[in-house]
Amino acid sequence: MPPSPNLSTASTLNDRENASIPANAASPEDAYSHLLKALHPPEPIVLELDILPSTYPPQIHHEHPALALPKPLLIQLYLVAHNDFFTHLCHPTPSTTTAALHATSIILLYDPAHLTAANFRKRHLQSLQTQLSSNKEDPAPQALTAAIQHELHFLSSLQTSPLKKHTKSSTLWHHRFWLLRTFLSQAADLPHPSNHAISVPSLRYTASTLWRSELAVVLKAGERHPRNYYAWQYARELFLLLREGLVVGRRGEGDQVVETVRQVHGWCLGHPRDVSGWSYLVFLMERGVEGWGQGFEERKVKWEMEEWVRKYEWRGASVEWFLKAVRSLGGGE
Q1: Helices (DSSP H) in the chain: which residue ranges?
Q2: What are the C-alpha distances in Å from 245 to residues 178, 206, 240, 256?
Q3: Are 128 and 119 within 8 A, CB to CB?
Q4: pLDDT tens-digit map of 5-55
Q5: What angle do CA 285, 290, 291 make, to 5 degrees?
Q6: Following CA atoms 275, 217, 166, 101 in sequence, which dihedral angle do they give, to the nearest 10 degrees?
Q7: How far is CA 260 from CA 12, 284, 325, in A?
Q8: What is the rounded CA–CA span in Å between residue 61 and residue 17?
Q9: Dist CA 264 CA 258 (whole Å)
Q10: What are 69's strand-pairing partners?
């Protein structure tokens, strides 16, 4: 199942999974290897990452699934990663590919807009795809499956953690959409998958399963960074990609669209000043998808919002804009 944000700390912690790594007790290379190990666990998991102020001691704090380090230490490790990465780009060899790939995770943790690092991760996945296409006996399907799952979990860790730049990074959201469009849209039982998609038999999700997981990531990113345009725009693009699978998929999956409207409406009520969320709710209502009962859901949302405004005497530009937009819809009368 695709990753969804899991930000709760387990009640019992395994000592081997929890560590505080003092930088002054080890070389930068040792701290670097510890951070890489934490960012690349054997089993993919969504981490809660945090970059601490410089007033904190130079330590890597790892209490599964939380991982934090002060910014001066991150800068130091970023410089090591930057050197490893560009050394490989200037003199590429098969033996340094994995080290360069791992280096990109630290680069993106420090700079989520680093397009060169994001594109290198794309090329790595495409190289596994090429192996799968050229050699049916090669273990590439398993390698590609594991790489896709780790990539989704890594992106979820960056995009749902309390990191100001990462939750609203256009580079990361574009990278996530590229990943799903390229590798998962055909695996999501779509009637007409993307022309760029390939079949990965071990990654079989229904459109509804994939959508629920991705919507959870978007909602969490919206909480982390209010008015998160890039996260909501990603949700628009993914909804349009999966829309046919949501509506014409297995029996009952059309209800997933109505469930999405209700879920997003509930999120908006919890964040009434966030115009980006209200705008996305209008986007969903504008679609007029089958299974809505001839505009019943639009009318219900409109009526509930008008009652909410009257009951609480709410005065806010975001809600007022939403009501005006809904009244202009054909089903909002």
Answers
A1: 28-39, 71-90, 97-110, 115-134, 140-160, 170-179, 207-224, 229-248, 255-270, 275-287, 296-312, 317-327
A2: 18, 8, 10, 10
A3: no
A4: 544 333 333 433 444 555 444 577 889 999 999 999 888 899 999 999 999
A5: 95
A6: -150
A7: 34, 8, 19
A8: 11
A9: 10
A10: 51
